[in-house]
Design brief:
Layout lengths: L1 E7 L7 H16 L3 E7 L1 H4 L6 H17 L8 E4 L5 H10 L4 H4 L3 H4 L10 H15 L5 E3 L5 H18 L8 E3 L8 E5 L5 E3 L14 H9 L18 H9 L2 H12 L5 H28 L1 H30 L12
Parallel strand pairs: 1-2, 2-3, 4-5
Antiparallel strand pairs: 6-7
Helix pairs in contact: 3-12, 4-7, 7-8, 9-12, 10-12
This protein binds tryptophan.
Amino acid sequence: MARILTGIQSTNVPHLGNMLGAILPGIELANTPGNEAFFFIADFHSLTTVHDPEVLRENTYATAAAWLACGFDTEKGFFYRQSDIPEVTELTWFLTCFFPFSRLELAHSFKDKADNLSQVSSGLFFYPMLMAADILMYDANVVPVGKDQRQHIEFTRDVAERINNRFGAETFVIPEARTEESVQVVPGIFKDAEGNFAKMSKSYGNTIVVFEDDKKLRKRIMSIQTDTTPMEEVKNPDTCLVYTLYSLIATAEQTAELREAYLKPGMGYGWAKEQLYKAILERFGEARERYNFYMGNKKELDLKLQEGAEKAGTVAYEVLSRVRSKLGYKKLAYFGGEI
Ligand code: TRP
């Protein structure tokens, strides 16, 4: 049994790129027999950039609703909000006391911003230690992450090994990073300045948010950038964003049909976009309904997250108690532990 753990950023309402690149593969991993998934919304990490309570709360809800809507099985796996298990901040403190300052200074997440130090909070500096605590808190074996996060997993292993060397190998489970080479890159709705497909990303403003209402979603799809090939000429599907997006969503058969339409004179891009819109509604129709249900019934959402927090909290309590005793502190007594 491998315990798989990953933190989910909650700085935006999940878009199509997040869904195809992270949410759906994540759920597949969680459903794989032999895996036990700990997936959480990293809302403490969000505080390094989000300082508006309403935005913080809503984005956390939207992210949770998206994962549940796409079918994360909360019976089999653990799905929770990081901030519901505040013990993680205690573990962060422990870790910082064993990790050299000079090594933390080498973190890319910090170094990338170090030329503008007046804008860097201490929270951003300690970000990798909170992330290490997220992982070590639950005895995780495997952490699926993107390439940009691999250094953080190195730090996690490093700090855990330092502590294990001093207090015994059973203090922390040493996790491993796993980076899928074949992560699906979803292009955005317009090309970059050089005319190449740009990755769909909130920071480029080129996203399709599948969970938006019909009218907004349709309008967004109609605004996808296409070239000026006239209706009566054949079109090149391979350089067209509409076709590429369609191929990521529709079945192989449907994609072959659309390809044929491109290669015959007479097809208009408006029609192709309409097909893409329909394909999105078909593929994500149920997920959209469930998303709206959760966003309209935050109580249900809170309930699900609360259940997840209780399950995860039991594990966190055990691990933290173990670590506390190793370091020379009392076990946590308030959660039913003996004094
Ligand atoms: N820092 C990660 C990111 O930006 C999110 C994250 C927080 C995370 N805690 C984690 C990922 C623990 C894996 C494990 O994507």
